[in-house]
Specification:
Blueprint (H helix, E strand, L loop, with lengths): L4 E3 L16 H10 L15 H14 L2 E6 L5 E6 L31 E3 L2 E3 L3 H15 L9
Antiparallel strand pairs: 1-4, 2-3, 4-5
Length: about 150
């Protein structure tokens, strides 16, 4: 059986340059490319601020109001909403990934790759793909007068 491979995103980009959300698979690739490892071992722990900034930029560009809430210097949360009023829909997720061992990977964990209709990359299943899918779905709400 011949394996087909397609790289979705080749390198990390500065979140400030990522204004409009790209197409879904590219969005997933860009999120995978941003390291956001959470670890109790300081040498492996990274800030999630770059991925929070990226998501905030995309949502701001779509017309969402956003607020970044910092729980520490390195860890941050993003609130995003559209419309007004008390009712609404909450999509909740996290931006950090588990630590990883490079020797357990056949591919670069920070480069999303599609191989035989499967996506590979650190955080693909938990939960960077969900964040991209949530933004893709939220695009349908942008032109609605939500209250």
């Amino acid at each position: 059986m011949q394996m087909q491979s397609m790289e979705l995103h080749s390198k990390w980009q500065d979140p400030s340059s990522m204004k409009s959300p790209p197409p879904l698979l590219d969005m997933i690739g860009q999120l995978i490319a941003i390291p956001s490892v959470s670890s109790t071992q300081a040498q492996f722990d990274t800030s999630n601020k770059p991925i929070i900034d990226c998501l905030a930029n995309w949502l701001d560009d779509l017309g969402f109001q956003t607020e970044i809430v910092s729980s520490s210097e390195e860890k941050h949360n993003l609130l995003a909403w559209i419309g007004e009023g008390e009712d609404g829909l909450v999509l909740s997720g996290h931006t950090d990934t588990v630590n990883y061992d490079q020797t357990g990977w056949n591919t670069d964990p920070f480069r999303a790759q599609q191989v035989d209709n499967r996506l590979y990359g650190l955080g693909t299943a938990d939960m960077k793909s969900f964040l991209a899918i949530a933004i893709e779905a939220a695009k349908d709400f942008v032109d609605k007068n939500l209250e």
